[in-house]
Structures are given as C-alpha cells and as structure tokens.
Amino acid sequence: MTLVGQVLFFVALLIVGVSGNIFNLIFTIQQQVKTRSVQTVNLILNVISINNIILVLATFVLVVSIFQDPLIWCIRPYPLSIRTEIYLMMSCSFISFWAIAWLSLFYCIKVVNFSSECFRALKRNISSVINAAVLLSCVFSSLLFFPMFSLDAADSMEQNYNVNDIGNLTCPLPSFTIQMNANAYAAAILCLLCPIPLTIMLPTSLRMVIHLCAHTLALKKNQTQVQGSDSYLLVCKITVSLVGVYMSTLCIVALFIIIRLIGLSITYHILASAFSFYSGMTSLLLTASNRYLKEKLWSLFCFWKAEEQSSKSQTVVTGDV
After folding, report:
1. What is the pLDDT of residues 80-118, one digit of tens each?
2. Which domains does the chain have, with CATH numbers?
3. 268 SS3 class
4. Is-contact 29 42, C-beta < 8 A?
5. What is the pTM of this model?
6. Do residues 100 and 181 touch, judged by C-beta distance below 8 A?
7. How far apart (Å, rounded) are the C-alpha atoms in residues 27 and 291?
C-alpha cells in the first residue's frame, strides 16, 4: 500500500470510528442539559462514546508510531507515549465492553418481569445500581491497567546487535519492570475482558429474547399492545447486536495477538480496523436505540437536504433571470 493509500486508510478509520460517537456524545449532553437530569441510559451512552473516541484515537496514534519506527518495540526503555497509548487502549476498551454489559443488564431488568422478590427490589433500584456499577468500572479500569506504564523490552535487548542487520532483528516480547506475577495478571485481564462480561451479556440478552417472544405471541390478537411492545423489541434487537459486535471485535483482536505471539507477520492495520469497526457499529446501534438521537440525526439529514434543494433552486432562479 502506498503512502497516500495509508493516509486515506487511516483517515477513513478515524471517520468511521469517531464521527458517530462524537454525534452521540454532543446530543446526549445537550439532552441532559435541557432536562437537567442524567438518566442511566444516557450515562452509559456518554461513557461508551467517550471511551470509544479515545480508543480509536489511541490506536491510531500507536499504529502511526509503529509505522514511523518499526523497531519501536526494541527501544529500551519504551517511550512514554507508547506506554500511554497501550494504557488508553486497554482501559478504554475495558470500560466500553463493561458498559455494554451493564446496559444489557439494565434493559433486561427493566423489560422482563420477575417473580422473585430479590429481582423486584433490584428492578426498583436498578438505575442507582447500574449508575454505581458504571462509575466503579471506570475507576477500577484506571487502576487495573496502571502497570502498563511499567512495560519495557526484555533485558536481552541490552546485548549488542548488528545495526546493519535490522531487517532480521526480532524484538523480544514486552515485560513488566515491576515485581508482579505477569501470567496471573494477564489471565485476570483476559477474564475481565471476555468471559465475565459475556456471563452478563449472553444470559440477559437471551432472557429478553425469550420474554419478548412470549409476550408478542400472547398479545398477537391485540394490535395496539403489540405495537406498544415494538420499542422493547427494538431494544432487544440492538442489545443482541451489541453483543455480536463485541464478540466479533474480541475474535479479531485475539487472532491478531495469537499471530503476533507465534511470530508470524501481521499488520497493525488489522488492530486499527477492529477497534474502528467496534466503535462505529456501537455508535450506530446506540443511535438507533435512542429516540432523541434518531430525531436529531433525521433533523440534520433533512436540514442538509433542505439546504441542498434551496441552493439548487437559487441557482435555477439566477439562471432564469
């Protein structure tokens, strides 16, 4: 790929990954200012949007840094910028993934009727519980990935190597300079990024699907009530879609990491594309699930269309004169 192609590729990734999240963030904050309240869904939407934007930007800067200096992983010590980019990528992806999990749990508790008194009590206080969970996830993430600032090349890089033979140089895997069990830490991160959020997303999504299917079948003879359940059906579809986007992104990132660990060559464009796809799709799905954002998007579209028609009509009138 040529240099111009590289630039166009990265610009496209930035637009796809950032634009939708900026739109959601701006108009969600605008809605909160108007209503002077912060609803749970809007809080989660803000958290996802902010972290998706930072995630895409951090990934972009990391890929550009590696593109400018392919041997940056051989530098000892690692530049602070690289450590910061890795920290932001890990922390923001963690927060965004868990925010989707809390959103799935929130919708499930709000939509599904439970007979257990424990779940009924949870339903009455679900907004406060989820708000606290989202904020705690942000704080926990900032602390969990702090050891990323101690990443550095292995001690073997202190040995002399032939600078003229850089093409055959293999940089060692990063290691932590602080005293810690790296294997246990890596295992904990993997569990917190994949299996544990999935134990929240999948059961809640499946429970909503079962509930809404039964609810729709029971009310199929009452057209008015079925239409009233359309909003819940949309929420269910979007929640399941968010889980699918999350799992697809994890599979791509996992494949990238495995190939790198094996020692095979794979471009960092894959990593940038995965996070851009995740950020773009989540922003699109969250916009579709929010009536206020859909109305704003449609009003902008109609405004642009009206402006275009107005400019065309002015051109025609000028030509006639």
Report:
1. 999 999 999 999 999 999 999 999 999 999 888 877 888
2. 10-152+173-302 (1.20.1070.10)
3. coil
4. no
5. 0.86
6. no
7. 12
